[in-house]
Amino acid sequence: MLITGGSGKLGQALRRVFPYALYPPRQTLDLLQPASVHAFVQQHRPSVVLHAAAYTSVGKAEQEQQQCWETNVRGTECLVEAVQAHSPQCYFVYVSTACVFYGDRGQYTENDVPHPKNFYGLTKLVGEYVARRCPAHLIVRTNFVAREPWLYPQAFTDRYGTYLYADDVAQALHGLMADRVTGLVHIAGEQTLSMYELACLTTPAVLPVTTREIALPLTMDMTLQSVRLAPYRLTRGDPVDHPTA
Fold first, then answer.
1. How confident is the model over 84-90, as a mean pLDDT?
2. 152 vs 30: CA distance, rounded Å
3. CB–CB of 169/187 below 8 Å?
């Protein structure tokens, strides 16, 4: 199994669930260098690829569109093309985002039409269609944070999601991949929370703020539901012990 994005928040959680997988650093597998990607995939010929690497800063993406596009779209294309060339039967899992939706109403399902409000969401949506080139693919939309103290002094009271922690998502992916689920699914928490409410779970001293105080095209209501899966529980406290694959 090959997992990209191993140094990210989700990647760190995935390491605990899939300890035997390959987690190559950028020096070994550079998604912006086709020759690097083809050489790595040709050498290892993975039967499963979990593509979690991404440019994820919504704000910076508006100013760094080329960099965001190269990472989220061209990087995914390089990986898919290498898989098609060297491991065509590979099960390809792509981690996407609730930001593929506009965010004006929330509770989006797999049947709703995507309409990104920002450039980051656009690149992740295009990446979904690239991932679909693999016959055995799973596209997962979700929204999560690391189980750690909130990184900022403030959090939005008017931006919502069906949030999970990264280790919750890693465990959900473990179950879906064990069952070889394909197509499009939403991994959603069972509870709607504002970002402020979410932040308070780990950092009670965080201060409330509204999005009116910033000028970014944010997806306001990122709540998801699924027509295929039951909602997942946002686990409280320390990470639970996950079974390893």
1. 97
2. 30
3. yes
